[in-house]
Amino acid sequence: QVLLVESGGGLVQPGASLRLSCAASGSxxxxxxxxxxxxxxxxxxxxxxxxxxxxxxxxxxQSVQARFTISRDNTKNTLYLQMNDLKPEDTARYYxxxxxxxxxxxxxxxxxxxxx
Length: 116
Hints:
The chain is an all-beta fold. It has strands at about 5, 10, 20-25, 35-40, 45-50, 60, 70-75, 80-85, 90-100, 105, 110-115. It contains no helices and eleven strands. It starts with a strand and ends with a strand.
């Protein structure tokens, strides 16, 4: 069983920055790929970013490339998403996800609202 808890969301103006965190329970964090996804109001789920277990390889959706940075601290069992130059279209609930032994685990999400 893996428990994922996101935090760090909020209401910000366009151009601002936020850092999201995802705290993971269990002993498998350091061996698992981790992902961020988001769901905007009335829209489907969109994959945002992924990172390998060592943190040495990262992947981004084109819509966030060069603005978002995914990272992880395996000593703290925590995943991060640094979001810079936020735009209104980044407004969404952000979820972290992992897959362990073919089972997908999701957090409940944290809401990010970008509005002036």
